[in-house]
Design brief:
Blueprint (H helix, E strand, L loop, with lengths): L21 E5 L9 H15 L3 E5 L6 E4 L2 E7 L3 H11 L3 E4 L4 H13 L4 E3 L4 H9 L3 H12 L4 E4 L2 H9 L5 E3 L24 E5 L9 H4 L6 E5 L5 H7 L4 E4 L3 H10 L2 E4 L8 H8 L4 E3 L5 H4 L5 E3 L3 H8 L4 H8 L4 H11 L20 E2 L6
Parallel strand pairs: 1-2, 1-5, 5-6, 6-7, 7-8, 9-10, 9-12, 10-11, 12-13, 13-14
Antiparallel strand pairs: 2-15, 3-4
Helix pairs in contact: 1-14, 4-5, 10-13
């Protein structure tokens, strides 16, 4: 089953704010994590700063943390309440965006409600589906909790129209669309000179090696050529043992990552639970057609000219081989981070009441302003 043609992303409307704003992002996901949430927030902060705004972050590394169950490399802030309030007050924001539903997100939500401050939130992750996959918790229960978290938000930002419609059907309110972009200077077509000894065609997966990414659905396929897996995660050891013929390149970053994208012939996106899928845009920008299941994310990003979608993923992979790399690059040009940042600024909810005029505590670090020269 293939998809019907979809329109290009609608450009973001110009920001309705006629002055520079101090925007504060509270997020439980931050470096050293490398995932779509972190990359989105980091890149949008850089682009928003180019628009003249100041973006600050409150992140777990400013607190005492504990490891996340089943994800020990991800640290969660422990009892962040009082310190969080002081960090926010020291930054003196014009608007607050709560990016995640973790301990920092819940604490920021509670503080904003107590002080009567509007805020926006985002739905980056299908948390209920992930909790069900790992712990068997019923979807209805987790969705009730997540819906409660987002209910007071002045704007719940979602990445695709499919997700917008799905969440609306589940009773979420104040939904606003916030698309994504791709670094069109780094991710470009070019020589396929990485791993020259791998038999072609090369079918490539890039992303976290975790159960919710459904990587077995790709690696178990009977396909010609080679399977290339780029990334790391808790499933690495099991996947390598189960699929010894696949080539595992580990985590790659920056220009090295772009070179591994270019090395492939088809990008395979087996996830059924991602809210968007930035890696699909990066693959398309490098000239790789995409094979995926016909689910939200791929259905919103791909068109028949650049992606093959089918419940038979092997059939999608074979069809994708015939797609034009030049069309893939052209399609990716419609997704820019500049438009994503403008859309984000347009969607935020500034408040117009001053923070209490208290002296800034000398021993308290302010929320960290975004530094375009570093992290």
């Amino acid at each position: 089953m293939s998809s019907s043609p979809l329109p290009r992303p609608v450009p973001a409307p110009p920001p309705s704010h006629d002055r520079s704003l101090r925007l504060l992002v509270v997020t439980d996901a931050w470096y050293p994590q490398v995932n779509g949430v972190v990359r989105t927030l980091d890149t949008v902060a850089r682009e928003a700063s180019l628009l003249g705004h100041t973006v600050g972050f409150v992140t777990p590394d400013q607190f005492l943390t504990v490891p996340t169950p089943t994800y020990p490399e991800i640290r969660l802030a422990l009892l962040p309440g009082r310190r969080l309030g002081r960090l926010i007050q020291a930054f003196a924001p014009d608007a607050i965006h709560i990016a995640t539903e973790g301990p920092l997100g819940w604490s920021a939500r509670r503080l904003c409600l107590k002080r009567g401050l509007p805020f926006t939130t985002a739905y980056h992750t299908r948390f209920p589906e992930y909790v069900k996959a790992r712990f068997g918790v019923p979807l209805a229960l987790t969705y009730r909790i997540v819906r409660h978290f987002h209910a007071p938000s002045r704007g719940l930002l979602v990445a695709t129209r499919s997700l917008y419609d799905e969440l609306a059907g589940r009773g979420f309110v104040n939904l606003r669309q916030w698309s994504r972009g791709v670094d069109l200077e780094r991710f470009t077509p070019g020589p396929k000179d990485v791993l020259p000894d791998l038999p072609r065609p090369i079918f490539t997966y890039v992303g976290r090696l975790a159960v919710e990414k459904n990587i077995d659905a790709f690696l178990a396929l009977d396909l010609p050529g080679s399977k290339l897996v780029v990334g790391d995660g808790p499933e690495m050891a099991r996947l390598k043992a189960t699929y010894p013929k696949a080539h595992f390149a580990g985590a790659r970053h920056g220009d090295d990552l772009a070179a591994y994208f270019r090395a492939g012939d088809v990008f395979v996106f087996p996830s059924r639970t991602d809210t968007f899928g930035l890696v699909m845009l990066e693959a398309l920008a490098c000239g790789l057609p995409v094979a995926a299941f016909p689910v939200p994310g791929p259905l919103d990003i791909l068109s028949p000219a650049v992606g093959a979608m089918d419940e038979d993923l092997a059939a999608a992979c074979r069809r994708a081989l015939a797609l034009d790399p030049a069309a893939c690059r052209e399609h990716a040009l419609g997704f820019t981070w500049a438009a994503t940042a403008a859309q984000f600024v347009h969607n935020i909810a500034p408040f117009h009441q001053d923070w209490p005029a208290l002296p800034k505590p000398a021993a308290v670090q302010a929320a960290i302003p975004y530094d375009p020269e570093g992290k």
